[in-house]
């Protein structure tokens, strides 16, 4: 019996010693990775369509209608922001007064925006620049515009968006006629 007790005591001590060794805790779980922000840098070409509303300081010189056109530009990604340049050309057929129709508008624009969403696939931006309107009866007129928009990358090579612009054409044809125009447009663009 003494042998059995001694054997049991040795077995118990051996098990205790085996458990008393260096215990290393499991490595900590890796921190969740941040989603990679999309890169907006590159050229784009697209089409746009919408509505234009034109008013002036002269009674009866106003109009509205549809507007369609093309856009091309370049964006540069700066982390959580994007800056860019673009050219737009839109055509329309809006009668302002008998004999005077707005036919097209050209824009050279700058834009600056902030990425939205966890991956930065959305872009809220402000824009502004030079505008030139072409009319029958009054010729062309230089002006300026300001606006804002939203664009969303639906894939690496395509984006959709919307934009609101406020145009100002002062002293049209060297007269006291001042014309204001607002455009509301949606667009799609292929990105390279």
Q: Going across the major beta sheet, what is the strand order? A: 1-2-3-4-5-6-7-8
Order of helices and strands: HEEEEEEEE
User: What is the terminal separation in angstroms?
Assistant: 88 Å
Taking the sheet with the most strands, its summary is: 8 strands, antiparallel, barrel
The overall number of domains is 1
Global mean pLDDT: 90
Q: How many individual helices?
A: 1
Q: Brief overview, please?
A:
9% of the residues lie in helices and 63% in strands. With 192 residues, the protein is mainly beta. An eight-stranded antiparallel barrel has the order 1-2-3-4-5-6-7-8.
Explain what you see.
This protein is mostly beta strands and 192 residues long. The chain has a single domain, classed as Porin, CATH 2.40.160. 9% of the residues lie in helices and 63% in strands. The protein is rod-shaped. The mean pLDDT is 90.
